Amino acid sequence: MLEQLREVYKNDPLAREQGMSPGQRLHFHQVESGPRMKDLETWFKKQFAEGREPKSGLGEAILI
Fold it and tell me: Pick from 34, 27, 29, 1: which is nearest to 13 by CA?
């Protein structure tokens, strides 16, 4: 999970370094980060279904 988030957060500085406009950055994030975020969503849903996360600090934060 943390590796996925790390990769998502690496994309914004990369987009800025390349001088992308806000619209270009949005498209870049949708293409590059979107699949990773989908994977994270699937992981979270599995954690909730198995009763693992809702009792943790992370689970409580996600439920808010």
Answer: 29
